[in-house]
């Protein structure tokens, strides 16, 4: 397996270099210096700014700098006095503190729901569960966030008479900080995603449950529990793992609305602020990290395939 | 065991007694804490806690000015102002000083700080405050910026140090606003050691003489929150005693009262309002969508449920100039001074219904007026109406003007790029504007960005159309007229990049004039000249409704200056 992982990593190096190259080129199609200064700047201001931003160096040199540790010590162009490293290290933990548990919770609940629905396929429980999933999917993300904050934090605290969930904020110095600041956003995320995931997993499980080997297993006299857990669920895990692993990087970076409403200094809002502000060092640094994360999760997905499905051989 | 219990009891008592002030900022907060790089109200709100200016507005007798870093108000002899600094004012402790001990503030620090405003490498936002004001300063600026290295030690003819605590400044002419400028946070005094040692990082590592300080750089979570602590080395200063008025209960007590200020930045109103309702904020400005939850709509009195909680209300009329739509006058499509370009802008202006905006988003509490000078200041038009104003809605006139501009029914006019700050309300406001302009066939292409990015785009002349507000820096219409003075073009305060030689000439005249009927007449003339060219659609002035929790004492909000947080006291036991 390790041989496979190393080989995959080596194959992905050119992919990774290519991603960084494309990002750098894309950010420089329109001269970023003029974009910052506006069309009325003098040539002198242009030259000065170009130097200040480190863009006076050759493209290859800039590329080399990005490869050499993501250029993490470069100052943000938008947040004066902040380096890419500072922004990244500030943003990554809050994002992971929400994305990781949200993914686990969503997957567990969605899998359980999908199993129940598939097990009772065509019966009222299945219909109710899937109707609930469709309703859940149909409601806007922003509504979840607004109502979740109002009822989940403000009203709940009022009813209970003490603060269970913070209305907003993120302070890791508090002893129960994760429960206080992250659990509610995690629950909101899960509530939003469960509908999508449950429908998808149900379809996969239903398909697996009609396969020949499942019929054979039943014919052999295996218990229903064993049939479902060993022969249906295990085979369905390939699709589940693919879905979960693909979701992870997006979940880490895609929490913009929730981060704005809950005052969480995560990667989503940091990246979107950087993109809107043409803050290239931050965009480059974050993209480099995301791309690495994506490649690693892809390799991890392949490894997990082999773990859950003995038919898969890592060669 | 007993000793431990006693120690724990003391520890919990100490924590319980800590006075924490919890306040909101309704935006993504400051972008920088370097005074010369700052320009927005949010930067002022934080910078004024950590840095100090030579003079300040009197908390109890606003808009009177009084000494802050000065021993007394400067002595004026013609064009020469003589200043005497307070002794014993120290910068906070910081590794930039020998042994990490903050040193005493002296006269050369003042000139160094002002000279930073002249150094273009610092990306100063407010050079216009000093422009053509101090003898030799403009020439110094030009020469130093041209030279390879900016020499802060080079002399300026009008800046003279007399001793460590005394200096004088010679003006080019009797610029009336000069003292007001010295109360603005951009002119606050910073130590050279810190600015040079931290370079770019100085923006996030303030080293001032103010009553509060940023203990650790991590205490400022960009776009989320900032925590400031009481400056343990702050000099002896006391709550003011306004002569004549009944003595304030806090008069003579040592300031600051609070041990810590927790400032939270809210990009959306809902979390702020919920935090307020949950008693986690000591004051709040009421968002317009929650206005009727706080006040009765007709009488605008505080609802009884709030009164029962001991909440008090402070409506503050703002010296506000809100424009619905500003035009970049250098933009090839909407800018320019030809009849056609004027007609295009006026067509847009006539299509906009400001009263509808006022009703929908501000519960009709704003004052709609023509021009840029807010109510209460010289130069504000009688009844808010000027004969030169292009106040809508008048769709027939708008369509006729649009045709005159060469775009009958909007045909041939590409969608105009409108820059706005992000936020639910801003989106709804833009939708209303799109609907109003859609009636004459003008399309808008929205660009939603953070407030700090919006100002950046405007400063860089990238925004074609944009909407935000100007709060007067000081209570004089001249401050608003300066927004259209040619040399103040972006990144200065003239965000419209408006240029008119005659206007600029008149502006030069009013700069040196004190209040008089003649000056008021000139203000009105200048206002109408701008209205004739129509570089913006507006205007409105807001009243900000502050709600204040009973645990907060001595609170008299004012938005012209922000260093009043040092006067606020809190009851640490109450919520």
Walk me through the structure.
The complex is a heterodimer of chains A (315) and B (575). Helices cover 76% and strands 0% of the residues of chain A. With 315 residues, chain A is mainly alpha-helical. Chain B is built from 17 helices and 25 strands. In chain B, the strands form seven sheets. In chain B, strands 16, 17, 18, 19, 20, 21 and 22 form a seven-stranded mixed beta sheet that branches. Residues 1-14 of chain B have low confidence and may be disordered. The interface between A and B is large, with 40 and 43 residues.
Helix content of chain A: over 70%
**Cα end-to-end separation of chain A:** 8 Å
Gyration radius from CA atoms of chain B, angstroms: 25 Å
The tally of domains of chain B stands at 3
Q: What is the alpha-carbon Rg of chain A in Å?
A: 24 Å
CATH class of the domain at 90-278 in chain A equals Mainly Alpha
Q: Give the class of chain A from helix and strand content and strand pairing.
A: mainly alpha
Class by SSE composition of chain B: alpha+beta
Overall geometry of chain B:
globular
Number of strands of chain A: 0
Name the largest protein-protein interface in this structure. Answer: A-B, 40 and 43 residues
Low-confidence stretches of chain A: none
Instruction: Report the top-level CATH class of the largest domain in chain B.
Output: Alpha Beta
Number of helices of chain B: 17
CATH architecture annotation of the domain at 90-278 in chain A: Orthogonal Bundle
Query: What is the ordering of alpha helices and beta strands of chain A?
Result: HHHHHHHHHHHHH
Strand content of chain B: 15-25%
CATH superfamily caption of the largest domain in chain B? Dipeptide-binding Protein, Domain 3
């Amino acid at each position: 397996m390790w041989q496979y992982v190393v080989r995959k990593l080596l194959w992905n190096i050119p992919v990774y270099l290519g991603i960084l190259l494309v990002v750098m080129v894309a950010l420089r199609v329109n001269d970023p210096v003029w974009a910052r200064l506006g069309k009325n700047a003098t040539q002198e201001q242009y030259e000065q700014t170009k130097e200040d931003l480190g863009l006076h160096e050759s493209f290859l040199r800039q590329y080399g700098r990005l490869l050499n540790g993501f250029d993490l010590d470069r100052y943000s162009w938008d947040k004066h006095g902040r380096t890419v490293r500072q922004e990244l290290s500030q943003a990554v933990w809050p994002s992971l503190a929400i994305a990781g548990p949200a993914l686990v919770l969503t997957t567990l609940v969605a899998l359980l729901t999908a199993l129940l629905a598939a097990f009772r396929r065509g019966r009222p429980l299945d219909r109710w569960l899937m109707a609930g999933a469709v309703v859940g999917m149909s409601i806007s993300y922003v509504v979840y966030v607004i109502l979740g904050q109002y009822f989940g934090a403000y009203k709940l605290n009022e009813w209970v008479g003490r603060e269970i969930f913070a209305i907003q904020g993120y302070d890791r110095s508090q002893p129960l900080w994760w429960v206080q600041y992250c659990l509610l956003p995690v629950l909101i995320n899960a509530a939003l995603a469960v509908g999508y995931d449950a429908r998808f997993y149900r379809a996969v499980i239903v398909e697996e449950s009609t396969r020949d080997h499942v019929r054979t297993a039943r014919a052999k006299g295996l218990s229903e529990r064993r049939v479902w857990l060993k022969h249906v669920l295990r085979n369905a895990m390939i699709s589940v793992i693919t879905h979960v692993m693909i979701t992870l990087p997006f979940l880490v970076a895609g929490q913009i609305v929730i981060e704005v409403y809950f005052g969480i200094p995560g990667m989503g809002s940091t990246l979107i602020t950087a993109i809107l502000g043409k803050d290239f060092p931050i965009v480059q640094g974050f993209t480099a990290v995301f791309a690495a994360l994506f490649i690693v999760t892809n390799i991890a997905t392949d490894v997990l395939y082999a773990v859950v499905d003995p038919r898969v051989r890592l060669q | 065991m007993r000793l431990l219990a006693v120690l724990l009891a003391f520890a919990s008592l100490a924590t319980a007694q800590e006075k924490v002030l919890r306040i909101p900022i309704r935006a993504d907060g400051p972008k920088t804490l370097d005074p010369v790089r700052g320009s927005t109200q949010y930067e002022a709100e934080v910078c004024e806690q950590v840095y100090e200016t030579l003079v300040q507005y009197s908390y109890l007798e606003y808009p009177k000015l009084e000494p802050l870093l000065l021993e007394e108000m400067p002595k004026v002899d013609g064009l020469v102002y003589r200043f005497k600094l307070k002794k014993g004012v120290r910068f906070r402790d910081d590794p930039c000083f020998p042994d990490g001990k903050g040193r005493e503030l002296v006269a050369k620090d003042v000139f160094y700080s002002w000279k930073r405003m002249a150094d273009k490498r610092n990306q100063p936002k407010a050079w216009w405050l000093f422009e053509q004001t101090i003898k030799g300063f403009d020439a110094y600026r030009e020469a130093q910026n041209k030279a390879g290295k900016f020499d802060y030690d080079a002399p300026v003819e009008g800046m003279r140090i007399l001793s460590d605590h005394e200096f004088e400044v010679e003006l080019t002419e009797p610029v009336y606003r000069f003292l007001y400028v010295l109360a603005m946070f951009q002119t606050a005094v910073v130590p050279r050691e810190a600015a040079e040692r931290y370079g770019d990082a100085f923006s996030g590592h303030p080293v001032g003489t103010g009553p509060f300080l940023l203990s650790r750089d991590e205490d400022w979570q960009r776009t989320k929150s900032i925590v400031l602590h009481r400056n343990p080395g702050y000099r002896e200063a006391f709550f003011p005693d306004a002569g004549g008025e009944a003595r304030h209960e806090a008069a003579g007590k040592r300031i600051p009262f609070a041990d810590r200020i927790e400032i939270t930045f809210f990009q959306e109103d809902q979390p702020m309002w919920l935090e307020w309702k949950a008693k986690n904020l000591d004051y709040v400005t009421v968002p317009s969508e929650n206005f009727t939850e706080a006040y009765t709509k007709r009488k605008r009195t505080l609802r009884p449920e709030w009164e029962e909680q001991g909440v008090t209300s402070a409506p503050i009329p703002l010296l506000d100039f809100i424009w619905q739509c500003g035009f970049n006058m250098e933009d090839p499509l909407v800018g320019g001074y030809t009849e056609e370009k004027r007609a295009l802008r006026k067509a847009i202006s006539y299509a906009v219904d400001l009263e509808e905006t006022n009703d929908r988003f501000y519960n009709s509490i704003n004052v709609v007026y023509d021009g840029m000078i807010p109510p209460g200041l010289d130069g504000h038009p009688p009844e808010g109406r000027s004969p030169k104003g292009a106040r809508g809605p008048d769709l027939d006139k708008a369509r006729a003007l649009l045709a005159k501009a060469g775009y009958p029914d909007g045909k041939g006019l590409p969608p105009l790029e409108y820059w706005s700050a992000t936020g639910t309300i801003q989106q709804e406001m833009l939708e209303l504007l799109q609907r109003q302009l859609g009636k004459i066939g003008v399309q808008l292409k929205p660009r939603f960005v953070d407030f700090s990015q919006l100002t950046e785009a405007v400063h860089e002349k990238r925004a074609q159309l944009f909407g935000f507000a100007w709060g007067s820096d000081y209570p004089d219409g001249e401050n608003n007229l300066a927004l259209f003075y040619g040399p103040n073009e972006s990144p200065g305060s003239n965000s419209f990049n408006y240029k008119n030689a005659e206007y600029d000439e008149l502006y030069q005249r009013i700069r040196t004039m004190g209040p008089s009927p003649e000056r008021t007449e000139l203000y009105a003339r200048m206002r109408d000249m701008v209205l004739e060219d129509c570089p913006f659609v507006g205007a409105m002035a807001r009243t900000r409704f502050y709600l204040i929790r009973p645990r907060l004492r001595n609170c008299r909000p004012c938005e012209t200056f922000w260093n009043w947080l040092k006067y606020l006291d809190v009851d640490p036991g109450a919520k």
